[in-house]
Amino acid sequence: MKRILALTLSVAAMASVASFAAGTSTKITGYVSDAMCGAKHAGTGAACVKKCIAMGEKPVFVDDAKKMVWAIDNPDAVKSVYGDHVTITATVDASKKSVHITSVKPMA
Length: 108
What we know:
The relative contact order is 0.21. The chain is built from two helices and five strands. With 108 residues, the chain is of the alpha+beta class. Strands 1-2-3-5-4 form a five-stranded mixed beta barrel. The radius of gyration is 16 Å and the shape is globular. The chain has a single domain, classed as CATH 2.40.50. 27% of the residues lie in helices and 34% in strands.
């Protein structure tokens, strides 16, 4: 019974990774931060995020649920929401820890 459960969980895990690799679009809520600070300022440091990006740091996305930091491979998509709490629709590349954002919606 334990083997069947372990096998089932393994297959489910591989399927979820495969769906990310296949380019499935997904919605994720989180913050736009900068590469230097990452999750440190999630929700509290919009001014710092904007300053760091102005000084050359790359924007990143910090997932609310996992506090995972994702590189953004099309940074112009978040140009107007640096430091903001947003929901993105994106294609996730789990192997590169990056997202390609197709839409951004600021949270109320």
